[in-house]
Specification:
single chain; about 260 residues; alpha/beta; two-stranded antiparallel sheet; 13 strands; about 25% strand; disordered C terminus
C-alpha cells in the first residue's frame, strides 16, 4: 500500500475574499496580479446586502476595499463591526489580509487604533515616502525611497500597537503598515491604475469637482505626467502582496492499489 507520505500533493488555486464597501470600486492592478497567480476571487458586495464570509476557512486571503463611509459608521453600515472582527480573525490565523483606504482604516480599528475623521484630505497622484522599515519590507522593497500613487481620502488613523509603519506623507503619517506576517493596510489606492482613475472621473465628477477644484480639467495632463509611474508602482505592490498569500495543499488520492 502507498503510504501517505508518498502521495502527491496539489496546491489549490488561492481563494481570495474581496469586500466591496461601495459599488463599482474596482480592483485595477490587484486584479491583474491575482489573475497572474490564478486566484479565485469571491466578491462580497456588502454595500448591497451586508453579507460577509461566514468564517475564515473558505478563503486564503481577505481584501477590504475603499468606500465613501468612515470606518466608524456602524449606524449606517451595520456590517462594519463584524467586518472588523473578521479581518482580525484572518490576521490571527496567519492569513494574508489587505486593507486599502477605508480598508486600512478598518484594519486599524480591528487592531485597536484610533480613527481620525476628516483631518487628512488627499486627492490625486501624490508622492509617498517609504520608511526604513518599508524599504526592507516585501510589499514596498522594490520601490526605493519614494513613489507616486493615487490618493482619495479624508480620514486617517493612529498606528496600531505592534504595527510597523512602512510609508508616510506630510498629510497622513500612516500611509502603509504591516502587522505580523502579512496583514497590510495602505491608505493610498495602489490598485487605482490609470483605467480605474478614468472610471472614477467618469462616475464621480460632481464629488471630484467639489473636493478638488480644477482636477477634472487637468486630468489628462496629470495622467500623462504621473499615470505611468503610479501604474508601475501599483502593480509592483499588488504582485508583492499576492506573493504572500499561502495556499492550502490538498492530498491527491493515489491511483495505486494495495
Amino acid at each position: 500500500m502507498v503510504s501517505s507520505r508518498d502521495r502527491p500533493y496539489q496546491e489549490e488555486p488561492m481563494r481570495v475574499a474581496v469586500i466591496e464597501n461601495m459599488r463599482n470600486t474596482g480592483l485595477g492592478a490587484l486584479a491583474a496580479a491575482l489573475d497572474e497567480a490564478g486566484a479565485e476571487i469571491e466578491w462580497f458586495r456588502v454595500w448591497q446586502d451586508g453579507i460577509l464570509p461566514k468564517d475564515i476557512s473558505g478563503h486564503d486571503a481577505l481584501v477590504v476595499l475603499g468606500g465613501e463611509q468612515s470606518a466608524l459608521d456602524d449606524e449606517t453600515h451595520p456590517y462594519l463591526p463584524e467586518l472588523v472582527r473578521l479581518a482580525h480573525r484572518f490576521g490571527d490565523a496567519g492569513k494574508a489580509v489587505l486593507g486599502i483606504c477605508l480598508g486600512s482604516q478598518i484594519l486599524a480599528r480591528a487592531y485597536g487604533a484610533d480613527n481620525h475623521l476628516g483631518i487628512a484630505r488627499e486627492f490625486g497622484w501624490h508622492g509617498i515616502g517609504v520608511t526604513a522599515e518599508g524599504r526592507a519590507d516585501p510589499l514596498l522593497s522594490a520601490l526605493g525611497g519614494e513613489f507616486t500613487i493615487f490618493e482619495w481620502h479624508a480620514d486617517t488613523f493612529s498606528l496600531p500597537e505592534g504595527a510597523v509603519r512602512l510609508a508616510s506623507s506630510p498629510v497622513a503619517e500612516n500611509q502603509a503598515f504591516r502587522i505580523g506576517r502579512a496583514v497590510y493596510g495602505t491608505q493610498f489606492h495602489f490598485e487605482a491604475n490609470s483605467a480605474v482613475v478614468a472610471q472614477w472621473k467618469a462616475e464621480f465628477p460632481d464629488t471630484i469637482a467639489r473636493i478638488a477644484p480644477g482636477w477634472l480639467e487637468n486630468h489628462a495632463e496629470l495622467a500623462a505626467r504621473h499615470g505611468g509611474a503610479a501604474d508601475a508602482a501599483g502593480l509592483a505592490i499588488a504582485r508583492a502582496w499576492v506573493s504572500l498569500i499561502e495556499r492550502e495543499e490538498v492530498e491527491l488520492l493515489s491511483q495505486a492499489s494495495a
